[in-house]
Write a structure and sequence with these properties.
The chain is an alpha/beta fold and about 325 residues long. It folds into 2 domains: about 5-115 and about 300-315, ATPase, nucleotide binding domain (Nucleotidyltransferase, domain 5, 2-Layer Sandwich); about 125-295, ATPase, nucleotide binding domain (Nucleotidyltransferase, domain 5, 2-Layer Sandwich), CATH 3.30.420. Helices cover about 45% and strands about 20% of the residues. It has helices at about 45-65, 85-105, 110-120, 165-175, 180-190, 210-225, 230-260, 275-290, 305-315; strands spanning about 5-10, 15-20, 25-35, 75-80, 105-110, 130-135, 140-150, 150-155, 265-270, 290-295. The strands form 2 sheets. It has a 5-stranded mixed beta sheet, with helices on both faces. Strands 8-7-6-9-10 form a 5-stranded mixed beta sheet, with helices on both faces. Helix 8 (about 275-290) links the parallel strand 9 and strand 10 (about 290-295). Helix 3 crosses helix 9 (about 305-315) and helix 5 (about 180-190) packs across helix 7 (about 230-260). The mean pLDDT is about 95. Bound molecules: 5'-O-[(R)-(carboxyoxy)(hydroxy)phosphoryl]adenosine and zinc ion. Zinc ion (ZN) binds near residues 116 and 137. 5'-O-[(R)-(carboxyoxy)(hydroxy)phosphoryl]adenosine (KG4) binds near residues 138, 180 and 275.
């Protein structure tokens, strides 16, 4: 069937999301974001899995209602198998198994990071193959050469923290609410790039962000020793400077990758691709290098089931179905 109706579930971290895709058309994409983690300053795995358990049925129902379909019209159910928090993944995978057994339809397992990349195929314009994708999220930072929806090669990745973690950990040092990425982005717009931080020296196309975190820690410690109100007075400028450094690190490697591979179709994906500074840097640098650039719509940057449905669509076309006895994997391998 060329136009399958697929229900997709994403529960790898702290977003409970369900989407329904009919052929190429996204009929619904509903997400419940677990804001209770804010008070802990990070995602608490136990709290996250319990919340998925509580909310998933409601989110499924609202996705079905919005799509205006009945469960019996579904051709397949897709679910994120990993990577992610094991307890959170377990809730989505178990629910998906129950649904496919009840409805007697196939199960499709999806790799979360493949799905971030394939989110580019939900709406136009779509990149041509092969393209490069800088995938930047709370758990990953990768440069991937995408040869087809089924063939992706990691050219480089972070050796320690992810770009999203660099934003979130800086936010913690600045006492910003979790997740700090969007808050830091907003504050950076009101500031200037006044301070500089050392950029890591990492070979090839790999990244490292843990040194930056330490540099910011010492920077803040030294300045607040001189002036206890330093953070309060300089917050937008600190945010603008940190964001600038993170973007510089990312873009330099992306330029190297594009030159090395001779590819000018360039995309960004993942939660950090919602960052306004990164989005405009890609456009500016893209023009300088005559790239065709692809930036996902905001709703498909951070975790969402729409991207899971799209990745599953390509698997459905090849009848790549999962066994009913699969279990989730926190560190699911790149297939
Ligand atoms: O892809 P995602 O929703 O979840 C993971 O798979 O990790 O990414 C979440 C990450 C968090 O670190 C969050 O702070 C970051 O994306 N993020 C941002 C922005 N929006 C989300 N970072 C910088 N600027 C933003 N506007
Ligand atoms: Zn993600």
């Amino acid at each position: 069937m060329e136009h399958p109706i697929i229900l997709a579930i994403e529960s790898s971290c702290d977003d409970t999301s369900v989407a329904i895709l009919a052929g190429q058309k996204m009929l619904s994409n509903k997400t419940y974001n677990q804001d209770m983690h804010q008070k802990y300053g990070g995602v608490v795995p136990e709290v996250a899995s319990r919340s998925h358990q509580q909310k998933l049925t409601t989110v499924v129902q609202s996705a079905i209602d919005e799509a205006g379909i009945s469960l019996h019209q579904l051709d397949a159910v897709a679910v994120t198998r990993g990577p992610g928090l094991i307890g959170s993944l377990m809730v989505g995978v178990s629910f998906a198994k129950g649904l496919v057994m009840g409805l007697q339809i196939p199960l499709i397992e999806v790799h979360h990071m493949h799905a971030h990349i394939l989110a580019h195929f939900i709406d136009d314009p779509k990149p041509d193959f092969p393209f490069l994708c800088l995938t930047v999220s709370g758990g990953h930072t990768q440069i991937v050469r995408v040869d087809s929806p089924h063939d992706m090669v990691i050219l480089g990745q972070t050796l320690d923290d992810a770009a999203g973690e660099a934003f979130d950990k800086t936010g913690k040092l600045l006492d910003l609410p979790y997740p700090a990425g969007p808050v830091l982005d907003r504050l950076a717009k009101e500031g200037e790039v006044k301070y500089s931080f050392p950029e890591p020296k990492v070979d090839g196309l790999d990244f490292s962000f843990s040194g930056l975190k330490t540099a910011i820690l010492y920077f803040l410690r030294d300045h607040t020793a001189d002036d206890p109100d330093f953070i309060q007075k300089e917050l937008p400028h600190i945010c603008a400077s940190v964001q600038h450094t993170i973007i510089e690190i990312l873009m330099k490697k992306l330029i190297t990758a594009a030159e090395q591979e001779g590819i000018t179709e360039i995309a960004i994906a993942g939660g950090v691709s919602a960052n306004s500074g990164l989005r405009s840097a890609l456009e500016v640098i893209g023009q300088e290098h005559s790239w065709h650039t692809y930036i996902p719509a905001f709703q498909y940057c951070t975790d969402n089931a729409g991207m899971i449905a799209k990745a599953a669509y390509y698997k459905y076309l090849k009848s790549e179905f999962a066994n009913i006895d699969i279990s989730p994997s926190a560190r699911l391998e790149w297939q």
